């Protein structure tokens, strides 16, 4: 068992005597964990491995303190303190007065079924949970320290080297070589394409001190909402990464488990809050890299006889993820059309999850142009963001961003009223230029329902739209209906439901 096992045993006995409560124990390859009532304690094993060094008392104290500091950024309610462990290993005490023999990280315990990996398996994760986490992670990344452009982290050559290091064993193992070879060719081509982009991302401050290990097992559902925890403390290079590389671990983890709907709900929350549409240029590469990491770890476990029977097929997913759409078509484009309150955003949210699409929302992008957040009240800030010039700028931004996203291979939904014909025509031209399947989603609702929805939206204050009854009346007066050609490219919908979503997807995405 070793000295550390003896220390963990002794501390468990001490905790049980002091509290009168049972103590549960768990072990990872680098830590011991003790659970006693509402508390949890983590002891780092005195190890020196290729990727970490906990071999001395001073190093274990340092990394306990680093773990506390780093995780308090996202989960301050879980990470409480670093406590000295004193006394002999056979009868140690937490925070005692004798000689310090080790250190323990003190945490608040949470329920086992609060982990998102468990909640996903139980079917208890919702799109709202993912959207909320996406917004939280965007805020976290937005305030995280930035890497220097000439510093040690985020250099393009290092990104490619990290991928090559993970890919190397997969190319040699008999069970993975056939799948890894085409991935190698794709990764090398992507690296050549992305090198200038990686340099620009670093220069513009998108390499930040993130989490580094953002998978479903490191997200927890707390009473106040979801949050990530247990970030990487032992290797700065693994957490000083592009913000989309950080997020990619979680979007990959959801997709490989068959929940692309939740992955795109997460992405929608993150991008709506951050506006980092440019990050999608390299997201697919980062997701494939994360899948390779998981495949390598699974392969190592298989070699040690510890493979899990329900391990996802990471390499198979990665191969499907890099395969271009059949027929050489461009990524599909959909725009909404309808009065305020007609259900455009409800439909857009349902469709983005079902199709694995990215949504651009005019209400959000209009506010972003003026330095406002999605829920900020423009009137309270003394701004008039609804002038003809502001509308022109908004639609120009929507068109430019949609082009970037379509060229990156993502289906795009532009969520706007599109009441003017010239606004619709510029997106029809964009779809034609890129060879993108094209659909207008014409949303309708009765006058009473429109009024009810606008009143409800205003009362809750939880929607980016600032449309009022007066705005609705103005829209009704100047809206330009769909002409004959547009009507052929449109599908008319009412109340959003699963059958309607399936019908829209068939019309939009399937070849005709």
TrEMBL record:
Q: What is this protein called?
A: AAA family ATPase
Pfam families given in the database record: AAA_33
Cross-referenced InterPro entries: Cell-binding_unc_protein, Kinase-like_dom_sf, P-loop_NTPase
Domain of life of the native organism: Bacteria
């Amino acid at each position: 068992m070793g000295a550390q096992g003896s220390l963990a045993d002794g501390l468990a006995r001490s905790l049980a005597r002091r509290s009168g409560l049972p103590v549960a124990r768990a072990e990872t390859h680098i830590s011991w964990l003790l659970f006693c009532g509402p508390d949890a304690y983590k002891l780092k094993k005195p190890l020196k491995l290729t990727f970490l060094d906990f071999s001395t008392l001073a190093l274990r104290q340092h990394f306990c303190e680093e773990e506390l500091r780093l995780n308090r950024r996202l989960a301050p309610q879980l990470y409480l303190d670093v406590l000295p462990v004193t006394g002999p290993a056979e009868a140690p005490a937490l925070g005692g007065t004798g000689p310090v023999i080790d250190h323990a990280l003190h945490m608040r315990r949470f329920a086992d079924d609060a982990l998102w990996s468990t909640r996903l398996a139980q079917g208890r994760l919702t799109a709202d949970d993912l959207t909320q986490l996406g917004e939280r992670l965007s805020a976290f990344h937005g305030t995280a320290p930035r890497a220097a452009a000439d510093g040690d982290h985020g250099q393009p050559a290092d990104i490619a080297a990290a991928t090559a290091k993970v890919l190397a064993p997969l190319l040699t193992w008999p069970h993975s070589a056939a799948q890894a070879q085409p991935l190698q060719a794709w990764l090398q081509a992507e690296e050549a394409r992305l090198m200038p982009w990686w340099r620009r991302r670093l220069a513009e401050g998108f390499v930040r001190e993130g989490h580094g290990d953002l998978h479903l097992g490191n997200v927890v559902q707390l009473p106040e909402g979801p949050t990530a925890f247990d970030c990487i403390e032992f290797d700065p290079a693994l957490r000083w990464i592009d913000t989309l590389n950080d997020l990619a671990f979680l979007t990959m983890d959801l997709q490989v488990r068959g929940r692309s709907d939740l992955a795109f709900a997460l992405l929608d929350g993150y991008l709506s809050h951050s506006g980092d549409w440019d990050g999608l240029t390299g997201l697919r590469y980062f997701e494939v890299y994360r899948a390779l990491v998981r495949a390598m770890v699974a392969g190592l476990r298989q070699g040690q006889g510890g493979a899990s029977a329900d391990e996802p097929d990471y390499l198979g997913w990665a191969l499907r993820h890099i395969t271009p759409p059949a027929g050489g078509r461009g990524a599909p484009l959909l725009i909404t059309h309808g009065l305020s309150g007609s259900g455009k955003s409800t439909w857009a949210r349902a469709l983005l999850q079902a199709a694995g699409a990215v949504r651009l929302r005019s209400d959000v992008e209009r506010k972003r142009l003026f330095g406002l957040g999605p829920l900020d009240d423009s009137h309270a800030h003394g701004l008039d963001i609804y002038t003809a010039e502001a509308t022109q700028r908004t639609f120009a931004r929507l068109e430019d961003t949609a082009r970037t996203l379509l060229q990156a291979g993502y289906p795009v939904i532009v969520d706007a009223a599109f009441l003017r014909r010239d606004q619709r025509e510029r997106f029809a031209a964009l779809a034609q230029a890129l060879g993108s399947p094209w659909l207008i989603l014409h949303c309708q609702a009765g006058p009473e329902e429109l009024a009810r929805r606008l009143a409800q939206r205003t009362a809750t204050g939880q929607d980016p739209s600032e449309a009022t009854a007066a705005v609705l009346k103005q829209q009704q007066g100047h809206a330009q209906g769909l002409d004959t050609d547009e009507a052929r490219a449109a599908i008319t919908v009412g109340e959003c439901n699963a059958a309607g979503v399936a019908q829209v997807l068939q019309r939009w995405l399937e070849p005709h």
